[in-house]
Design a protein that fits this description.
Blueprint: H1 2-9, H2 16-23, H3 27-33, H4 37-52, H5 62-75, H6 77-86, H7 92-111, H8 119-132, H9 134-143, H10 149-168, H11 173-191
């Protein structure tokens, strides 16, 4: 219910009183478990990430866990957008990163060396890195015109795409072009 309320009305407009009234729980019961709505927020993000990552770490391949994380992020987009933009008490990206680090340890353990990731894994890591550094990229993108941020990142993606095409063959060329278009749209969305 907390996530739905935050997604619908925004984190700043959600109050403990309203949540307790809507859920039929006494306020004191809330305060027996949480200090305030920020404490509830930290707990909620931790529980969501544990459900996506740690609870699946021994059951699913890492690719499936990453898919689950992105699926959950998409389902909860409005919630994350609200808590990320309207409060600074809880480090949302930091909390998510701690759980992704657990997953990265699994990837390194399974793959033996991060340098041996296949190209799908590298692409996922690129997007994760961009998301993790979104504030930096946005600031640089908006505050100057000397460096083409999207172009610079895209040039590195082009190196990866060249490798993909060499590995997959010429038939993969159209898929690579589709990826470039999707990547550029996604990067523009993330930065803006």
């Amino acid at each position: 219910m907390f996530r739905a309320e935050v997604a619908e009305t925004g984190f700043n407009h959600v109050s403990v009183v309203h949540l307790m009234k809507k859920s039929g729980i006494r306020r004191q019961t809330f305060y027996d478990n949480f200090q305030d709505k920020y404490d509830l927020l930290g707990y909620t993000i931790q529980a969501m990430m544990e459900a996506n990552v740690e609870s699946n770490i021994d059951r699913l391949d890492w690719e499936e866990i990453i898919a689950q994380v992105f699926y959950s992020a998409e389902l909860n987009r409005d919630f994350y957008k609200s808590v990320y933009s309207s409060q600074k008490e809880i480090d949302v990206i930091g909390e998510i990163s701690r759980h992704i680090a657990v997953l990265m340890r699994k990837i390194i353990k399974e793959e033996g060396n991060i340098g041996y990731l296949d190209w799908e894994g590298i692409i996922i890591l690129v997007f994760y890195g961009i998301e993790l550094n979104k504030k930096f990229y946005k600031s640089v993108y908006e505050s100057q015109t000397e460096v083409d941020v999207v172009g610079e990142i895209s040039s590195h993606i082009a190196v990866l795409l060249k490798q993909i095409i060499e590995e997959e063959g010429a038939d993969f060329d159209q898929q690579a072009k589709d990826f470039v278009e999707t990547f550029c749209l996604g990067l523009t969305y993330i930065i803006q």
